[in-house]
Amino acid sequence: MIKYLNIKTLFIIYAITFSFLVHGYNCKIVQFIFGDSLSDVGNNKYLSKSLAQASLPWYGIDFGNGLPNGRFSNGRTVADIIGDDMGLPRPPAFLDPSLNEDVILENGVNYASGGGGILNETGSYFVQRFGLYKQIELFQGTQELIRGKIGDKEAEKFFQEARYVVALGSNDFINNYLMPVYSDSWTYSDNTFVQYLTQTLGDQLTLLHRLGARKLMVFGLGPMGCIPLQRVLSTSGGCQDKTNKLALAFNQESSQLVSNLTSILPNATFRFGDAYDVVNDLITNPNKYGFNNSDSPCCSFGKIRPALTCVPASMLCKDRSKYVFWDEYHPSDSANELIAKEMMKKLGFKPVNQTESPSPSPGPAMAPSTDDN
Questions:
Q1: What percent of the chain has pLDDT over 90?
Q2: Is residue 37 annotated as a catalytic residue, yes or no?
Q3: What is the distance between the alpha carbons of residues 203 and 265, in angstroms, rounded to a whole number?
Q4: Angle made by CA atoms 167, 169, 172, in degrees to the nearest 5
Q5: Which one from 36, 37, 113, 254 is the annotated catalytic residue?
Q6: Is 19 within the bounds of a domain?
Q7: pTM
Q8: Is 80 a catalytic residue?
Q9: Domain total of the chain
Q10: Minimal CA–CA distance to 111: which of 167, 48, 159, 170?
Q11: 62, 184, 327, 333: which one is catalytic?
């Protein structure tokens, strides 16, 4: 009887092992996000010396428990919303203390960092931030962990089936080229800086492909000359035309870059997501989309501007769902939702993990309000 049970047990173990060898490790499709403060979900929160922080009230007021969670908004990011609608899990911040191999296999990783850029020198006055090269380096470390967990063959399959998002560039202009404290501002002209930026991005995308990225989305820039921070530089309070032209030039060059890489890199499906027109129409015609303010932040420090981030003494607008901008830099949850939905329609995104139910989608609330705007 004992001999029979041992043979039976061995047969079950053999069957399970054979099934694993045939079918492989049962990994779901996840996403890996590389970006700046528009996509950061908490990395900078763990960078104690970073001056680019979303750790103060009123950040996160319309998300979960209403406390700051590392997102530079009152609610969700565009990546949160698109991922939810595609059935992709929300990847945690790379620096989240709970991150381990099992969490990575289940949810992916978000490496985005407020103040980060395509160029290493961008945002240096924030002291600590992850630029894109650093984010890719961290991704390489993630790959080592997963290879140790599931083996080289299954890890290769896992990373090649994953989705990748690269969304940086605005800091390279606003917190580098357009600031005279940076050498890039006097080393390059508008045209040569855009070329330098896109050539660097091309090297980085090629490196990601070498590391297994096959399905990758590069997001372009919106009309960054129309963010509140740029408007206050104008005597009229209007958009900065030069800044917007730089964004358009970058988008044009990056779109061509992505197209070229897709044609020459084996099995690459790289796409470019141009949100400029969507965001520009929202800012130009806010009432068309149910907003009533697109030129000033909901969270502001009274008439003293610009206060770059929300601070405990900041005043909030009455209805956060009616404001396009949350602070001087970043869109509100409502604006992010509209941008995400329009981008999904424009790019024809389809669900990936259809058995997954989306994460809760908080919507902006009305209170507390400390302003009559």
A1: 78
A2: yes
A3: 12
A4: 150
A5: 37
A6: no
A7: 0.89
A8: no
A9: 1
A10: 167
A11: 327
